[in-house]
Write a structure and sequence with these properties.
The chain is an alpha/beta fold and about 230 residues long. It has 10 helices and 5 strands; from the N terminus they run H-H-E-H-E-H-E-H-H-H-H-H-E-E-H. Bound molecules: cobalt (II) ion. The site of cobalt (II) ion has 7 residues, from helix 5.
Length: about 230
């Protein structure tokens, strides 16, 4: 829905008044510190806003978003966010959140050219290629797209676990749990792909368990969220 910019500023004032009315002193309280427990790494898609989906207010979740929720080993932007969140803010959970119907994942799956992002989405094509034999065996394009959205969450969660930032945190005994979630645009619900990792020894087993789980769900024909 198109708004004029002055309408957006008016909506902002109404929102701030409402929050302050519900929780007097909320904003001045946030001035002193932020103490989020969660780092959300998600897609830039406008339909997947971290705070709203979690029902959380400002101050509760640290957020990094990019096209197709990709975590690249050498991405200083993502690494800087992760290091600040873990070392300074001491977040306890990192969730990599993909979503069904992701345009970036669709482009990667089909090899569509969309621009500069093609180079970024090569990383998702690497995921596609890694699992190509299995993906090719799925029934149709819709199912392949859903499956690649899920696989991308697993692989990017794996990348999070392998960063020096997370490895160092675990080495010094800091509690950081990495999770892989996928979001349904069609129903507003998050699903835990059970890629849950609490330490270096759990990375590979969690990945393999989660991968086996999502393959089993596809084989059983129970996972077809976009078709609901
Ligand atoms: Co997306």
């Amino acid at each position: 829905m198109p708004y004029r910019l002055r309408d957006l500023l008016a909506k902002n004032r109404a929102w701030a008044e409402d929050v302050e009315h519900q929780r007097p002193g909320f904003f001045t309280g946030l001035l002193k510190q932020q103490a989020p427990q969660y780092l959300w790494i998600g897609c830039a898609d406008s339909r997947v806003p971290a705070n709203e989906i979690l029902g959380l207010l400002p101050g509760d979740v640290f957020v990094h978003r990019n096209v197709a929720n990709v975590v690249v080993h050498s991405d200083l932007n993502a690494l800087s966010v992760m290091q600040y969140a873990i070392d300074q803010l001491h977040v306890r959970h990192i969730m990599v959140v993909g979503h069904y119907g992701c345009g970036g994942v669709t482009a990667a799956l089909k090899g569509l050219r969309i621009g500069i992002a093609d180079n970024w989405l090569r990383h998702v094509q690497d995921v596609r290629n890694k699992h190509r034999a299995w993906l090719d065996g799925l029934a149709g394009d819709t199912e392949r797209l859903e499956a690649l959205c899920e696989l991308n969450v697993l692989e990017q969660s794996l990348n999070v676990c392998e960063t020096t930032v997370v490895q160092d945190a675990w080495a010094r005994g800091q509690s950081v749990v990495v999770h892989g979630w996928v979001y349904g645009l069609h129903n507003g619900l998050l699903e835990d792909l059970e890629m849950t990792v609490r330490g270096p020894g759990e990375v590979q087993p969690a990945y393999e368990r989660s991968l086996a789980g999502l393959k089993a769900r596809r084989a059983a024909g129970v996972a077809s969220p976009s078709a609901d």
